Amino acid sequence: MPERIILDYGSGGKASQRLIKNLFMKHFANPGLNRMDDAALILDLQGPLSMSTDTFTVDPVFFPGGDIGSLAVHGTVNDVAMLGAVPKYISCAFILEEGLVMDDLERIVQSMARASSHAGVQIITGDTKVVPRGAVDKIFINTTGIGLVVADPAPSGHRAEPGDAILISGSMGDHGLAILSHRQGIAFETDVLSDSQALNHLILRLIREVGDIHVLRDPTRGGLATTLNEIAQQSDLEFIIDQELIPIKEAVEGGCSFLGLDPLYLANEGKFICILPESLATKALDIMRNDPAGQDAAFIGRVAEGRNGKVVLKTALGGHRLLDMLEGEQLPRIC
Amino acid sequence: MNLLNKFKDPELCLNILDQIKSEIQGEFRFMEVCGTHTVAIFQSGIRTLLPESIIHVSGPGCPVCVTHDREIASYLALAEKDLILATFGDLIKVPGPGGKNLKAAQAEGARIKIVYSAFDALKLALDHPQDKVVFLGVGFETTAPTVAATIKMAAEQGVRNFSVLSFHKLVPPALKALAADRDIQVDGLLLPGHVSTIIGLEPYRFLAEEYQVPSVIGGFEPLDILQAILIMIKQKNKGRPEVVNNYKRVVPDQGNAKAIETMYEVFRPADALWRGLGIIPGSGLAVAQRYEQFDAALVFDQELPQVDEIPGCKCGEVLKGLISPDQCPLFSTRCTPANPVGPCMVSTEGSCAAYHKYRL
Question: pTM (2 decimals)?
Fold first, then answer.
């Protein structure tokens, strides 16, 4: 019989202490966390800071190319980095479902420890709650990250300018399709892996070696289309995107065609959009393509003059159409 | 280049486009019977490349869009009963009379499960033997055979807690009703690729023979669509309307005999209520007597409630090709994908949704 999480582990008493000591401290140990105070003491961050929080509820918890633990670290590290920052510390809060298999939790915690180590961040505070069976789906993780902003001025969705180049760091839709392919009810065979990865090291190189980056944004939920719309609206400018230049893996294209989905609306967890003056685009692309996190980086379009916050897609045939924001959830079609 | 990419090849497409431009004489109105075609035409940008004299008219080929208010009211009422309602995701946001949809019903406590096939709904019934599971059968000939096969399987396994609320509809009778309607003038019909994989070419013959409408079964890639348009224009120019299968790589002329046989073993033709088109004789599929224990309408004594029409909603006229979506007074103002008034704005294949989403 596998050991399972029971409500006692969330009691705050001895059982909770055992879980913290035998599991979380064992894998996350660092000087900040080891102090075991009510809050983490941060002594070394001065200057503009970037802070972000996110909650991860992915189904399935383990998926090709990652799991909810590494995803919870990558997601927050990347969000902090998108402000032109070096992520330093993260907190993590677990909401565990009664009955969760302890070995699964340990796999997730180990994965978080590995992801934090690769990203160069420390988990310095956290929390654990256990809720009755059915109140959550296995495990929910919240992570909050903080980092030191090194870009000046910091990239922002408001800073796109007419004539800027729009770059993406790799192929679109890998994470979304990898998750869908393993979801109960629509499981199908594909060799597509989630792209979940930390982007902060590559971002830092771009800031230091290219500079003058106007916008950085990771196209997670809602995918490339929705994220481009968010930025176009923030900057109140028109974006013209060339569909043919957007890298999409053949297996992602095929899976989407089968399910009636659009890869441009599928989530990515290890890619980013970079908008910068066109004169810097080649240098930025060279740096991205020489980094394992950006090998398929591509120029996909330009920021235009039109002050309408719209994203226009130039199709392979040379026609044009609107590339709108996703409304609600993408659902497989009926026929 | 793989086969599918060939049907997207810009050079081949632009060549056909040139031929279309040289062949077209005056205005040419063609109806995309299937909503997936409408979406494909927008997605590929073909619409902005074709001459303006080619008028695109949407048709009744989106199963969600043609679901009548009374049918929506019926399944919303069913969802309030003590059962699990299994449905394709497309229907979850479709508003019924009063604006309520399955998503809202779910938030109020109704047990709604999104499934990806009727088999998944049967599995749900097997996994929950204490519950009654009803599958919401909305769709055309494309989906009806798999629902029929699922009912057969349930019968073979002696399953007692599974049933289907069948609002399935058949495409050829709807096309006959449209062709016979003198208000509706089209020069060509782009026939649905998915439905045709099941029924083949024969059931469309009357379109050319009785009504002289050029009709082409087409695929969904840009080259498929452009070729179909060119064939229709050429037929019109020659004055020799025919029904052509231009999607032979997927659609056999004779259709899928096994699927049709299964469909008519489990279902029987019945009159059906279509949004915008009203009652069309023999255009629906009711569960056959032999399988009546799987007919949710009988099991739950479910009738179609009388409902008031949604004021201002012109989905019906859109589905008959009488107006384009942007001619509806509610389009993109009161009726948007976030707050849809009619199903044409909800469905991923709905023409109003396509206009709202893709049109510059």
Answer: 0.89
